[in-house]
Amino acid sequence: MDNSSKTDFFVIKALEDGVNVIGLTRGTDTRFHHSEKLDKDEVMIAQFTEHTSAVKVRGKAIIQTSHGQMENN
Ligand code: TRP
């Protein structure tokens, strides 16, 4: 696997209170391992790591990754 997949950062800006950023584990067992709650205008800067291969965002937010920016409504 290309090592950059574990060093990529992403940015999430909450557009409402109570946005959930949920980290999912890397490997054969895919499960939630961390949930972070953001209130409006809070920003989280995070990385894909050895432990985290996927992220689920629930709620209105702006999400920036190396693949571009999107808005979750
Ligand atoms: N301990 C986690 C890790 O190193 C922290 C983390 C990194 C995380 N990126 C995340 C948690 C994204 C939730 C979402 O993988």
UniProtKB/TrEMBL annotation:
One of its GO terms (molecular function) is RNA binding. It holds the Pfam family TrpBP. Residues 6-72 form the Tryptophan RNA-binding attenuator protein domain. It comes from the Bacteria. The keyword RNA-binding applies. Gene3D superfamilies: TRAP-like (2.60.40.50). Keywords: RNA-binding, Transcription, Transcription regulation. One of its GO terms (biological process) is regulation of DNA-templated transcription. NCBIfam families: PRK13251.1 (NF009724). Required for transcription attenuation control in the Trp operon. This trans-acting factor seems to recognize a 10 bases nucleotide sequence in the Trp leader transcript causing transcription termination. Binds the leader RNA only in presence of L-tryptophan. Oligomer of 11 identical subunits arranged in doughnut-like structure. Belongs to the MtrB family. This is Transcription attenuation protein MtrB. It comes from Virgibacillus profundi.
